[in-house]
Amino acid sequence: MNPVYIAGTGVWTPSEVITNEELVQSFNRYVELFNERNAAGIEAGTVAALTPSNAEFIEKASGIKQRFVMEKAGILDPERMFPIFPQRADDEVSLMAEIGVTAARQALAAAGREAADVDLVICAASNHQRPYPAIAVEIQSALGCTGYGYDMNVACSSATFGIEQAANALRSGQAKRALVLGPEITSAHLEWRDRDCHFIFGDVSTAVLLETEPSGWEILGSKAATSFSSNIRNNAGFMNRGEPNGQEGRDKLFRQEGRKVFKEVCPMAADHIAGHLSGLGFTPQDVRRFWLHQANLSMNQLIAKKLLDRDATLDEAPVILDRYANTASAGSIIAFHEYKEDLAKGDLGVICSFGAGYSIGSHVVRKV
Ligand code: CO8
Fold first, then answer.
1. What angle separates helix 20-37 from helix 55-62, to the nearest 10 degrees?
2. Is residue 155 lining ligand 1, measured as CB closer than 6 Å?
3. Residue 256 lies in a domain
4. 148 φ, ψ (degrees, to nearest 5)
5. Are strands 66-69 and 16-19 parallel, antiparallel or unpaired?
6. Is the predicted pLDDT of residue 1 greater than 90, yes or no?
7. 275-284, pLDDT tens digit by residue?
8. 145 is annotated as an active-site residue
9. Which residue lies with its CA nearest to atom 46 of ligand 1?
10. Pocket flag, ligand 1, residue 18 (CB < 6 Å)
11. How far does residue 227's CA lie from ligand 1's centre (Å)?
12. Would 117 be classed as within a structural domain?
């Protein structure tokens, strides 16, 4: 089996930011309008009044202070509450491919490689813009990569599972160099009118370049696990047209039982990482840095504490969700991208995602 290395990473960040305060202001205006327009029904008890959101609650419950989005005006318009993405013609590059290409170019530049050196492109994200042709194949063509490409989706674990797939293709010799891309346009699948989750997500695009020549970070081992749960669910899909509610039901966007997810996923993730490390002959104490999935600050603190038997420092388990919010599968990759240069040769790290499925993916890496 060939050894596999992470040779470069890239992160494209949208230029538009929504702070908690801005988000809550527009949400609360939406609530006011809804309650005014439905005053008679609310009075009669046939319509449930909406309750305002609160910026302090959001930061305290999640650790999120702001999020980057690709289109802010539509989201913040209380009469709309949804981003505006004009449809592009079939002969124009699609939005998802465009941001995938931008992040990919950064990863290639970081590794000093050309697109033509790449013979596998995986577009691994929690939502794909269309069923076919695959976004990965569009990106492969736009960049000028050779070989083959495909899309895959394991929700928040798409990126780590994508790296696992790419690493296996490289280990077996099926491909020589792979790009794993995570263009996460979460804003299009978030219900911005739902107080329980309107603050959770942000947009971003990530890229990871893998190869078999020693460079960057060696992947010492990869571990993927899944366990079925409907506690994070989205029923949007090609069957919707045949359903009585069509595309319209609340179930066609992201929804979750946040408390249950928190309670069930934390122990699963901590056990998964501990088991992965011990299988490779390491303990959590051997790890210099944990680049964890970025959904909730308390969740990460709890997982790191379970592993280390003490609170982790921000240096040991860096946080990016305060700025980026939850970016679905991109969170642990952004953390790795931003917080890896200061580590020394031989330092050990763990990249780990956890989320819908449930799904957990981890990679134990060592700086070359
Ligand atoms: N403002 C004010 N109060 C609020 C708000 C709000 N916005 N929302 C809820 N409250 C209130 C509730 O009504 C409740 O009040 P009461 O106690 O009176 O009933 C109180 O606050 C507490 O509510 P919760 O129990 O819901 O709040 P939590 O403390 O559990 O915090 C969180 C909510 C932050 C959502 C938390 O549960 C959490 O982060 N859980 C983990 C979630 C997680 O990790 N999910 C992973 C999902 S991501 C994934 O897998 C990828 C999916 C694909 C991406 C799709 C893109 C869109």
1. 130
2. yes
3. yes
4. -145, 165
5. antiparallel
6. no
7. 999 999 999 9
8. no
9. 355
10. no
11. 21
12. no
